Amino acid sequence: MQFSVIESPMLMMQFCISTLCNILASVFSKICYWTPGLRTSSTSSIPQIDGEVNQSKNATTPTSVNYHFTRKCNYKCGFCFHTAKTSFVLPLDEAQRGLKLLKEAGMEKINFSGGEPFLHEKGDFLGKLVQYCKQDLQLPSVSIVSNGSMIKEKWFQKYGDDLDILAISCDSFDEETNQLIGRTQGKKSHVDNLHKIRNWCQQYKVAFKINSVINTFNVDEDMTENILQLNPVRWKVFQCLLIDGENAGEEALREAERFVIEEQVFQEFLERHSGVPCLVPESNEKMRNSYLILDEYMRFLDCREGRKDPSKSILDVGVKEAISFSGFDEKMFLVRGGKYVWSKADMKLEW
């Protein structure tokens, strides 16, 4: 039996609705199959994007995050791989919102860096982030990496209770070498300032750490005596790393090629300092993909291709989706000792 549209308008309406539902169901299934973070109820296959396995099934936990909330710096270190390409800094409430999202996703340790983190609003912005993470989010560990030039004792008096670790970058104990590297400002002594901050850390019960980048200008230096005298909880020793667009390439603000050393030369430096108990070495292989790095827009940075490719901001898409594009090597994070006793309450230090 045949029906015309005029003779059976109800039947035609039902047919149209049925067809539309089928079309929508087909489109939705394709979206679920190809969109990162979404999948159908079937687990027989895992979708791939650009040849990479979708990571939604085993989502990465942001246990330890490095938040470079500013790129501005008062030093001009020639090998710097997070340069002042913008002057943008998130408003405090937005930064706190992002930090809360990270805590809810499993973050246990936050490290604030730059640029120079004490430069923005002369340290108060940083201090408020430190307080928020320790008092409101109750994170086990809150740390900072700084060149030390902008730190005042009054900052420790106001915010020191909420800071677990302060890492000061020091690449040489020779002032002329620091001048060649660019880790200096005017006639101030970087080494003298380092000792002053070490004393403040002890006075205000903040664990003291030193970071050094080994390069062509300091690779022959023996720092053993100075490091043992300062007695940091950790001495992180990095191999100079090239990042396209930051310290290498046409669009870079630095030219770090002249600072780069070979792996064998780096190993010789490590062997010379093997008697330093707090030494924590990190070659380029260990370092490149084993850090979760957030930029000033709270985007994870993927360094797998030798450059910093940003994800979307966690403020826009959430932590789970953004972190799937971070290129983070969680296994290497553990291999290099990324998880350690990082709360000063657990360090049992003798102040």
UniProtKB/TrEMBL annotation:
SMART domains hit by this protein: Elp3
Location (main, coarse): endoplasmic reticulum
Membrane topology designation: Peripheral membrane protein
Gene3D superfamilies registered for this protein in UniProt: Aldolase class I (3.20.20.70)
Pfam families linked: Radical_SAM
Coiled coil: none
Keyword set includes Cell inner membrane: no
InterPro entries per UniProt: Aldolase_TIM, Elp3/MiaA/NifB-like_rSAM, RSAD2, RSAD2/Viperin_antiviral, rSAM, rSAM_sf
Source superkingdom: Eukaryota
Keywords from the named record: 4Fe-4S, Antiviral defense, Endoplasmic reticulum, Immunity, Innate immunity, Iron, Iron-sulfur, Membrane, Metal-binding, S-adenosyl-L-methionine
Similarity annotation: Belongs to the radical SAM superfamily. RSAD2 family.
NCBIfam families cross-referenced by the UniProt entry: viperin (TIGR04278), viperin_w_prok (NF038283)
Protein name: S-adenosylmethionine-dependent nucleotide dehydratase RSAD2
Species this chain originates from: Cottoperca gobio (Frogmouth)
